[in-house]
User: What shape does this take?
Amino acid sequence: MPPDDPADAVAPPFILPRSALFGFRNIDREHQELVDIVNGTAEDMRRHERPEPAHFAARIRELRDRMLHHFAHEEREMRDAGFDGVSAHITHHTRMIVSLNQLLARTADAAEVARETSFELFAQVLDDVLRADLPFKDFLAAKGLIASD
Assistant: This one.
């Protein structure tokens, strides 16, 4: 029997769809690590009606730090492969980090954390993995460095 309140439903964790996988070095593993942090944040939101801002801020910092590591690795892979969109992608990465820093600042000053804030984190990760990284995936496939879908 489904729960009365949709907020009480426990959704399964998000797993990257096959179409989002690269099959190139460590990129898939790193993308899943980012998704796992967001899944953990979503689980925190489900378990606690009003998550502590300090705990949520720690999740944002964890995501930001993991993204910084991933972005440096991904940008190096792009340069090494000769991807001509690396400069635009670096700009995208920079905007994401700025956005996370702004979210972190808002959270640090908040009395409570709204559920929508966790959706904002999720949207950022999905935007990077499912939209912004796809030109690089297409480039790798065109060069024969990964299997094409």
